[in-house]
User: Fold these one by one.
Assistant:
Number 1:
Amino acid sequence: MSYIRQLLVAVLFTSIVSEFNSSKQQYTNTWAVYISGGAGEARRIARKHGFINLGRVFDDGCYYYFKHKRVSKRSVNPHQMRHRRLEKEPKVKWLEQQVVKSRQKRAFSVPSDPLYHKQWYLNNAIPNDLNVLSAWKRGYTGEGIVVSILDDGIEKNHPDLAKNYDPKASFDINDDDPDPQPRYNFNDENRHGTRCAGEVAAVANNLCGVGVAYNAKIGGVRMLDGEITDVVEARSLSLNPQHIHIYSASWGPEDNGQTVEGPAVLASQAFLRGITKGRGGLGSIFVWASGNGGFQYDDCNCDGYTNSIYTLSVGSTTQLGNVPWYSEACSSTLTTTYSSGTRLEKQIVTTDLRLRCTEKHTGTSASAPLAAGIIALALEANPTLTWRDMQHLVVRASKPLHLKAGDWTKNGVGRKVSHHYGYGLLDAGLLVDLATKWLTVNPQRECSIDISKSPQVISDKLVIKKYVDPCSQTKKYIRSLEHVVVRLSLSYTRRGDLRIALTSPSGTYSKLVDVRPYDTSSHGYRDWTFMSVHCWDEDPKGIWMLEIENKGSSTNTGVLSYFKLLLYGTDENMMTRRTKDTVISHCINWNEDGVCEECQGNFVIFGRLCLVTCPPHYYNVSRILNKTMSGVRRNFTVDTCAPCHPSCYSCDGYSVNNCLTCPPFSNYDEKQQSCSLPVYPRHFGRSERNDQMDGLHKIVVVAILIGAPVALICGVTSLSWLILRLSRRQTVMVTTSVAGASETTQLHVQHDTSDEGTGSSETESTYFITRFDQRLDH
Ligand SMILES: [Ca+2]
Ligand SMILES: [Ca+2]
Ligand SMILES: [Ca+2]
Ligand SMILES: [Ca+2]
């Protein structure tokens, strides 16, 4: 007991002392002195009074920094004597003994929400959680970031969402009105969007649990509760792209293990426009769930939404680090967050429909919003990151840890990667840390290589190897890979029996699609794109190998008609880049609007931020400011970021002819230093649905081409034949009008056979006769 008492007293004493100390000023042994008469005068005064002259505070101007060795480094009292002596010097116009300023990071306290203790994936209850606490402790809570959930609506009046609800990030596409309130029915089928929204931005310190980015703005697009068309998807994906930073989607083609489908024309265009123009040209961030078809052996590379390079695909792991039963594996998944698993494992805590809370949110669709929330924290830490920067950072901030999978391998740059988890569990603390240290990557390059153009038979196993020179000596040269895309067309008797894999020059094996037992389709893959992120940062130069293997019956046959490799990446060697230098620094002075006016060190002003260099779409300009500081007017230069011409991606001046690089899908004119208007490619990510449409189209076109002349010839022939027959019949009828019907028929038969003279069959003749007789009867 006495020990505890002693401890309490000690704690109390320490806190009293620190309280006392913090209330008192701490004087240093340094002075700031304004001296007129130049540097020589400053040196003389310093020497005379025993000070060390540490030089000018600013490169220009009359502020000097003095230090006195015989004054104590820290003192609660100012040194009056030395101060007064200096003050009496006629050239000293102003001086101040420097005091230690208490600058603490805003205090952070753990959320007090009643269900917070059940949020095991973020409250530090398990050893390897999402490490959200360390991002919160650094002061990042999603402030200023806008996330929209594309789903079945959002209960905007939910007490745990209302404060963060953002109508500008919301819309009801199903009913075409601005209010995305879910439609209520007896089994609450439209609770999904509200649950996902709470994971991102449920308010802190009230009821239920807390969102990962609990100070972010959250909106919802109601688009899954009705007929879904290409237009519906495209409108959702392109809602208010200058306001919304992150779109979170947990939907896609049916997870039945048989479907091969991707975004159609308009949804594809929405992605392309989003990454080019969204977020002021930095690119919208599309966070995507990898799919719930694990139970049906579905493969997320057969889903063109999640396997798009423009979506940041998120897989799931369970509380114990197992692959969940619903999880789909594929090489395009980038990262992983927690979700539900077996009955013994805990699920996700979030807001629920009808103003309730739930502890039972499940599936891959619970993982994507957790990632969206973590990405919101990183965007708050550095809002100048591009859509590709974010993928680079997520690769670096994901860790294999305890996640169990049979296929973890080291890729060519030494990172562990798995088809179940991508690069592993996303670490929020690491992501925000890297975000403040990351220099934006150079513009994306695409190097396209036709590997096989002539048809090749696929029997048991088809292996194609080719040495690839990644567009060397051109402006498309790629040194470090990002996404690797394989586009191919093949026919096959049973598509689901094929396993297709790609091996990079560094030996990284990406399973592009695994066997899908329920996929009995004989459509094959037509212009389908498979994607892998497993070669991230590898050098693409060398031998690539594609393997197409039949894992089913030996009677299967097919033909590969073409195979193309699309490499995406940059000219920079990403593995040699240093990420230690902080790219964001503190602002020293702000104006009334909160815009920074002066940065610490050699940083450039960008709105409220201080950056080491201007972000894409901006260039560095020096400005001279005239300001009154401590009663003295002075000029000083500041570096700020000014916007480029909207057509440029980077520039060295405002004009249309100051472009240095161009945005995606735009061409650079070297002479003019200008960029063309972007032309967004069409027919990207073709789907089976489109293939079927194409097939139908072809049939119609062929039918018209062949059918029309044939029909015309037939029409003319039958018409002339009819006319001929009618005229003859009139004569026959006249001659045999008294005879019975059978007699007439007889006559006609004779006429028919003799007229045709080509041996037309008995039945045909009879048919004509019958018709004719019937017509006569009427
Ligand atoms: Ca509505
Ligand atoms: Ca709450
Ligand atoms: Ca799927
Ligand atoms: Ca993706």
Note: Residues 288, 306-308, 311, 313, 332 surround calcium ion (ligand 4) (CB under 6 Å).
Number 2:
Amino acid sequence: MKGLPAAALGSRPPHRREAPGRIAKAPLGERLQDAKTVTRIRLLIDLSGTVGSEAWDRLPHFGEVLGGWFSPEEGSSGPCQHDQESPHLPGEWCGAVIEVENHLLAEYAVAHYLVLPRVLDAFVDERGA
Ligand SMILES: [Zn+2]
């Protein structure tokens, strides 16, 4: 008596079925579910020498972001001590949030942002969305 042919093992559902967030071409229902469980990345952006939201506007973003925003409500060095048309002073920074589909993408995104000169810090927000 022979055991099961090796090919029988291949008939099991692929491993990725158990991790819906990793499926690139998931059915619509699964994608919607993913959208409810986005993973957030927090960024601290160096504003010194830029005007207004220039540092954020020019940031080369990670390719698979779902969305994001830039706001002192996400943390900042404090209100500007200069007029709005003048460049930000050395040491000024502002927080931002980026949303991606899942934790794996978030780790790739953090690696992407950490090497950008304007990004002082980037980390996955473990509290979730
Ligand atoms: Zn400023």
Note: Residues 47, 80, 82, 88-89, 92 surround zinc ion (CB under 6 Å).
